[in-house]
């Protein structure tokens, strides 16, 4: 029996593990020199813009909304096809998420529908680069500028992806990255915000840790009710080891995605993702031909699992979760997001996968689908 192939798995090298051990032995394990080094490395990666790290991307985005002054009575425009963190943070800020359906080609927010959703209460647009495929940054920022809106890019999945040859995060307004273990680089858990200037970065630091500023003479002050979001040096050491490999990880992901495009049987009725050179291939997500199948997605996934292959779901359309239904959202409001949410599957894709693993997945996909196609 061949080994079980998960849909994702982090690649942590021995040097990184040794460096984590060094931090643990050093006597300083919370935020310290490794956090500073990781922030410097990320700043380099994002074209010299200031970057600050925290213990999750959710936290980075919570603070980003604070920096934008978004609160009660404000509206933020975003997509229903994302991890629910994207909209939960808006609710937690006391603001209102205004959802716009996705473009079925990209599965990202349909920018052609954004302007119609803008009201006098709109403060920001919160686009998501689903699966690492960037939202059209030219069009996005043209709309934001025209209407005087801030942008918080939820780039949790798109570290290293590009738009017009420029790295996502190296330009634009605030940009949030996630280092959850499933993402293209990890700090175990963690996240980062790319900021516009040092003043904004200092404000971020206050929100990150109890609103406290420490002065050179040893005194301190607290002038806002900040939270507890700081990343530890243990996690930062993992991130430093990962950042060295990020571009190689992404190149490997792209090669594996290309193999999927070459090998997936086009007669199975699967709807493949857009084959874009801008993507960092965070995920590879075909849509199942449910109308042509005599079984459902859960059974399909169980059958793949029985073949030793892990398949994920990212994501159900979030407006159909009970929290959002209770706020007035319902079936039929965002048909493209609902179609993707109901039929999407995430196939195995991670840097340590072998070429032969892709073939194995494609063979299982053919066998399982052919058995259930009407
Ligand atoms: C992973 C993810 C998040 C949340 O990141 P955390 O680091 O787990 O808080 C937010 N948005 C999207 C699109 C994600 O994929």
Automatic annotation (TrEMBL):
BP terms from Gene Ontology: polysaccharide biosynthetic process
Enzyme Commission designation: 2.6.1.87
Gene Ontology terms, MF aspect: pyridoxal phosphate binding; UDP-4-amino-4-deoxy-L-arabinose aminotransferase
Keywords of this entry: Aminotransferase, Pyridoxal phosphate, Transferase
Record's keyword annotation contains Transferase: yes
N6-(pyridoxal phosphate)lysine carried by residues: 183
InterPro entries: DegT/StrS_aminotransferase, PyrdxlP-dep_Trfase, PyrdxlP-dep_Trfase_major, PyrdxlP-dep_Trfase_small
Similarity remark: Belongs to the DegT/DnrJ/EryC1 family.
Protein's name according to its UniProt entry: UDP-4-amino-4-deoxy-L-arabinose--oxoglutarate aminotransferase
Species lineage: Bacteria, Pseudomonadati, Pseudomonadota, Betaproteobacteria, Neisseriales
